[in-house]
Amino acid sequence: MRTSLCDTLGVEHPIVGFTPSEHVAAAISRAGGFGVLGCVRFNDADELDRVLDWMDRNTDGRPYGVDIVMPSKVPTEGTDVDLAEMIPAEHREFVDRTLERLGVPDLPEEDEQSDSVLGWLHSVARSHVDVALQHPVKLIANALGSPPRDVIERAHDHDILVAALAGKGEHAQRQVDDGVDLVVAQGHEAGGHTGEIATMVLVPEIVDAVGDRVPVLAAGGIGSGRQVAAALALGASGAWMGSYWLSTAEYALTAGDTAMQQALLKAGSGDTVRSRIYTGKPARLLKTRWTEAWSEPGAPEPLPMPLQNVLVSQAHRRIMRSDDPEVVSMPVGQIVGRMNEIRRVDDVMAGLLREVDETFARLDKLR
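Structure for NAD(P)H-dependent flavin oxidoreductase YrpB (Nitropropane dioxygenase family), as requested:
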């Protein structure tokens, strides 16, 4: 299986894997795909620099990319406004009551002051770009659309490609007009930030809109070789997969969160919910007692980004440490219903490629 995307990215297989784990991203690249490391978890540039140093040493010279979340507009930055002071008291009280009701323990005293929300801020995202440009990354992607024009220009000056996620055809057109080199058509089924249009409808819409100008990757609901083949049949140059790598053995090397993987393995495709409670923008999450609490009568409306991040950042750390599969807070797509066992990345990749070949062979017999 080879498409024009393979030449564009310098890879063997047109499968791009997004993940917050450097261990998973490196393994995807080593297996012939293209690993993309999500950077939002890094609060300071030095930490990201150390991890990218590790990536440089552990990808066997294969190309990889980074995903940097850059909100298009952050009115609170560049001022003396304390974001924490902008959180309404009723929201804080609701979070505290909910955590107590769910039996989520407090953080150890030494971890209480840690701030895990910084990676969502525009200024920190720009520092991530500065670090990435010092490494041999092949691609910078932005989960929230086109990066600012100056970021695109800086990436191009370093011969780095730029990708953006799009949920509508008109979004993709604006992104390409801005200078984006690849468009990821991410459907409603995907984990994390998503739009309203399903992958089956969205991919050909975006291919028709910009496919003659840039490669288009299909994302959302892809977790098998049959679905990769379907993406190619819809006109995409490759598949962008995110959620499916959460159930790999390598992911646990970074997260160490066995409760999260236990919850994912038990979940079906209907066990997700699309909500603004994670970041302030609509995102698909695993449905748990935590997400259900936000839809109960009397629950407050989520705050806009980045205030919702500030509100729930410590709650997410407490939830992660609680080791309770029924309370985890995790973005994941509807493909979670196919994530039924822990496997190594190279086994996952081999299975995808084998099923793509089988699918094409079966379809060939229909002609």
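The chain has one domain: 4-73+89-106+115-364.
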